[in-house]
Structure formats: C-alpha cells, structure tokens
Amino acid sequence: MSERIHAGLTRLFDEHRIVFWYDAARDMRGEFDAVDLEGVEKVEVANNEFGLKYRMLRQEPKQKFLVFKDGPEPAMADNWLLDVQLATAVFKADQAAIWLSELGLPAQFETVVRDHMEFYRSGGRIEALKRLIRPADQKSDVLRRMLAVCVGAEGELDTVVEELLGQLAARRDDGLKLIERANLSDFFWTQIKNAYGYAPDAPDFEDFAITLFQSSYLIAMGEDGKLNSEALLMFRRWKNNRLGAVAFGALSSEYQDLLKIDADVKGRTLKALRPLDHFEAIDRQVIRMLVEAMSSQTVSAADVVTITRERRQSHWYETYEDIYLALAHAAQFQQALAEANLTMSSPADGVKRYATSWFKIDQAYRKFIYHMQRSGQASLLGALFESIENRYTTNFLLAVNDAWQDQIAKLDAWKIPGYPQQRDFYIDQTAEFRRLKSPQKVVVIVSDALRYEVAEECLREIRKLNRFDAELTPMISTLPSYTQLGMAALLPNKDLTICSDGGVTSFDMSTQGTVNREKVLGMGREGDRMKAMKTDAFMSLRTDEGKALFRDHDVLYLYHNRIDIVGDKLATEERVVEAAEDAIKDLAKLVRKLTSANFSNILITADHGFIYQHRELHETDFSVADPTGDEILFRNRRFMIGRGLNETAGMKRFSPEALGLAGDLDILIPNSINRLRVKGSGSRFVHGGATLQEVVIPILRVGKRREEDIGKVEVQIVVTGRSKISTGQTAVTLYQVQPVSEKQQQRVLRAGIYAEDGTLISDEHTLTFDYTSENIREREMPIKFLLSRTADSFNNQDVYLRLAEQRGKTSHFDDYTSHRFHLSRGMDLDIF
Fold it and tell me: What is the pTM of this model?
C-alpha cells in the first residue's frame, strides 16, 4: 500500500501545491509517517488552522504541503481551511480511493471502483486496465474495459464476446466467473442487450451463443432472427478471424445438430446457400447439389467453377478442398468436351488439334480423378464419376482415337508430316546446342511416361518460378510406344533394333540401363563429354558437386521415373494420377537444382505417353481375336512382336522398315484403345500403342532469364455513382486488371471500410484474385460491406474502403489501394 500511497500523492502534487489527507478511520498514521516526498512539507491539523493557513499562504507561498488530520473531515461550517481545500486537492487513502488515484481517474468515477472491489484485488488487472483507459472515457467506457480485462480481451464489447465464445468452446468459464465476482454481470448483459438485442428473462452465455449462431444463419438467409444485424456483423468478424477459427468450428459443429441444420439446408436453394458457411452442413449440401446438377448436366461449367471459387472463403473449405477441386475439374472436362470437334482431316491435323486443345480433356479428367481419390469421398462423387468416366471413355477417348485410327490406317510409314520424330531428337534438339558458333552445354531430362498433357501442366508450374521461362512443342514417339524403344530413340541412334525379348539395340549395343545408355550417348558428337545418370543421384549432389558436373561435361542425360514405375504395376496402376502430380513437383525441383549448378539449357521429354481409364475395363475393351503368325516373341497390352504376323480386323501390322527400325521383327498394334489379353498385367494404365495419348509426347525447353519476371495481378476499386454511403451496407466492385498467368500471379487482399483514424467500421473480407479469364467482365468481384454500430460515431465524415496485403507470413499488412466515401446515413441500425 505504501507504494500506491506514494504514487497517488505524487500524481496529486504534480498538479497541486497543497494536498489534504483526512484519516477518518484513524488507521493511516503509520502510512502518513512513512511518506517522504521530495520537496513536500508534512504538516498536521491540530487546532492550528489559522497558523497553518498563514504559513501556507503568506509565509511559504511556493512550498508544497501535505496537510494531515487524524480524524474525519469536519463539516463545511466548521472547516476553517475550507477555502484552501476547495482550491487544492484531497487525498483519500482508503483502498478504493487509492485504486481510483492509481488509475488517474477523477472522484466522480468512485462508483466504478467501489461497486466492483473484487476486480481491483489483482495488481495485474489494474495494470491491464490502466493500459486500456483513454482520457475521454466515461464511466460506461471504463466498465467495458473492465469486462475486457476480465476475459483477456483488448478491445470493445465484440472482442469480449469473441473471447468468451473461445472459452465456451474450450469448456472454460473463468471469464464469466470473474465478471460475476466483480459484480459486472448486470452491466455485461445490459451491454449485450443494447448491442445485439439479446434480452431473455434469465440471460445465459451459452444460450446467447446458440441464439447468435441461429440468428446469424437466419438473417443471412434474409429471414428474421432473435438478434439484430450488429450481431451478424460481430459473428462474421469472429468467424473470419483466424484467431477465432478453432472456437467457431467447435461451436458450429456442436450447435449444428441442436439447431437441426442438416434438415433445414435440404429445403434451401443453391443460390441461398452458396455465400454461407455458418455450418459444415452447408458445404455438404452445396456439394450434393453441385454433384446432382453436374451429373444431370443441369448446371453450366462456368457456374460450377464460379461456385467452387466462392466456396474457398468457407471456413470448411480445407475439409472439402479436394471435392471442390474435383468438381471444378469435372466442370472443365464437361466444357472442354462440349466444345471439342473430334474430327481431323489428316494425321498432322489430328496431332495439331490434340496438342492445342484436346489434351485439356485428358488433363481435366486426370485432375478430377486425382482430387476425387484424395477427397476420400468416392461414394459422394459416385454418380458424377460414373457420368465423367462414361463420357471420357466413350465420347472422347474412344471417339477421338477411332477417328485417329482412320488416319493412321492410311499410313505406309510411321511419320507425321510437320512434326519431329523421336528418333531425331538427339540430332534436332540436343546436338543443336553443341552446333552453335559458341557451343553451349545442355541437359536432357527423360521422364518416363510424361504424357503431353502432364508436361503442359509442368510447363505452367515451371513458368511460375521467378526468372524461368519454358515452351512446349509436340513430338511423335516411335512405335511401339514403350520404354525400351523410346529411351533408345532419344539417344544418338543407328540401326534401332527391337530384340525378341523386347529389348532394343543401337549401334549394335544394348540401350537398357543407365550405364549402357551413357555408352550409346558417347556415340554422338565427337569431342563432347557425355554423362547419364538417374535424377535421384543428381538431386543428392551437393551444390559444389553439381557445379563440378556442369564443368566437366557438355551433355547430361538425366532419367526420371515417377509415372511409369507406378502405372506399370497392377497393384499400383490406379495411383498413376497421383504419380503424375508428384512428377510435376519433381521436375520443378529438378529444374531449380540444375540452374543452381549452372545448367541453363534444359530439355524435358518422354519416352512415351499412356492411356489411363480409372474404372476396371470391360471385356469388350480387349481385342476380339487373338493375333496369329509364324512366331510370336513378345506381347503386352498394346503391342505384339514376332515374325510373319498376320494383320487382323482389330490390329494394324507394321514392318520394321515402316517404323524406321532395323531387324526382321513385325509389330502388331491394336486399333484405337483396344488392349490385348495378357495375364497378370494391369489394363487401366497402358502404353505401346498408337493412340494420340501414347504417341504425342512433349519437348519442353526450359531457360532462365536474368531479370525478375514474376508479378501479381493488379486490383482496382470500381464505384458507380456517387461515393456516398447512406445505408447500413454498401456494395462495390473490385476489378482484377490482368488475368492470372504463370508470370502474373494471384493477389490476396484484406478489404474493409475504415474511419480516418483507422477504426474498422464494417465487416472485413479476405479476397483472392485469381481469375484466369480473358473476358473483362469475368474478372469483376462484387462485394458488399455491412457497417457496424461503430460507424455511427463517424457519421457525416469521410471514410475509406481500404485494400491491404499481408507482408509475407507476418501479421503485418501493407496498404494496397483505397477509395474515399462520405458517410451520411440515419441512425436506423437494422438494415434487414
């Protein structure tokens, strides 16, 4: 107490020369005697009033005096020092007065302390309250700040409620108990009533929480709730605040059953539900509606993509992210298939159409299967999967390759005019860098079964890397389109020959395995220093070892096997779509590693592509008749090797000469997507045949630039009409200036309406701008802001819509752009 008395007196003497101290209970003598303030003379009233008055006012008019009376303050008529006392200050040394003095509050705030003594019995709470009190605070303001201290909040009533909701979710009630002990309960519930309209006969916080969830849901639906729109605003802020996310999720899950939300959402429309995320049941119902509409093709692809993008703002999006992505890719598949004209006038035309647009159908199908598998919700997506699978197999994969089969049936030799052949890759691509006036070093990455559409996605991922650029062109693989022949064709080659066991020789040397391939690679340009190795071995090198590899070699071939090693096994073939995703990540990492080792010319290609159908195949998907011939030496699902093979109605025969091969072995390729019957091997992931998916393979050329080339899209605020807010909510349009591309990446902004002093007066939104459309209208984002009661304090003033961007992963935000409005509205707060 001595420290508090010392502090209280010090504050009074900062403003007054004379301070009176009445010891009404006659229990403060010891504290008075202990007081020792520099420059302050202690005197005592003991029937010496006239002498003291003369000394203080005449003899020592500049000296500071602490005037102590052992007893209560006399009545005004009997107080001979009353005039001096009224002109100076009185120090009250009881506990309440000390606390009041410590807070720096005037005497009229005495009830704020005396009526809530329990609150002040903690020095920590007093210190916390001191930090929150503002000079202009009224009694009610101080009481609200006391509520904040009780629950550990830092702001106004809404933050108190948010903290209590968090404690409720954690099954704690320490904040409410302290409010009750501090005699603040009546004040708290009066504040809740005035702010949010909650006024039951016996208020209870959990009842308030349940009512808050229910009312916010109903008001958002455009219906009447028991609480007002200010409650909805507070609820939105809390729900969207990452600090309250866990508590919101827990309480929402608990109250969902109590409020029978599952049953309620089934009677709602998709339009009503799509902007809401108050309960997890909303997301499940939105998904069910989308699946049903997509399965029956009663919703446009554009709407599906828009809705799935909107749902990213949902609290539950992370739980259902893979389902939403599966739906978006399914919609893109449906749209791409609907727009495709699966006809071709020549083999070259077929390749051109596949490499420019048709590949997107394969890609969307693969991405749909991938996210469906990851979601673990195969049953929920079952009807949609059946629809997508049937259309992919029948309307695309079979249809396009039947048309393609008609074209290649006319070919006498395996060559597509206008497109590079795989067996010319080394001469046309790799050696090109060595033939320059100043020969450059080059690295070739051969990724086993890197289908063209997978390479296109890889292209986009690489182009997202700062200072990296890439271009993709199609190349025609050798036939049969299988690993041993494709790998050999990518090397310097001469007299490519398929052996009876399916192996391949070149320059009369085996091409199987990395060691043999390095030997064949040495048959290339004379004087070039060649190296072949697996990508895993390269990725394990230290930086200095990678640079030494660059220094000591001119041509490096790296072999990457992520897709084929998974797809070619019966037990794992259904995971090939996951392997494709992993392959893309691998290759992006590999490119970065190579450039750090000084390699700047990078080629990525494949030995072959593949066909993949997720559903188990039907008997009709296999060739009708077993092939015959003089000698059948080797067979798999998509080709057969032998001598004197007979062409059948379901298979096309190629001589080695027609395929550009040496030797005397004939090749049979099943028409279109048919498979041969082979015991024990997988049938969903296959290659070796002549479909577009198998033979159109990528050449991905990667280079690195000197300058930074990655930026973010720009966003503008578009306001039509006058920049005036006259109601409880206002609508604006935010416009994304450029479409998102590999080099123009998305931008995430926080948006809200603020007063001049930075006070937030609306709800706050976190918005992702990642529109890819070239159509300007499709890059507009309409958004509504709901004003809070706090806005009333700034009526008839200028306020600002501000967009801010998070700085890295910190809690700080940089201003991005803003627009000034004039706030001029009535006091009717209920906007619904």
Answer: 0.82
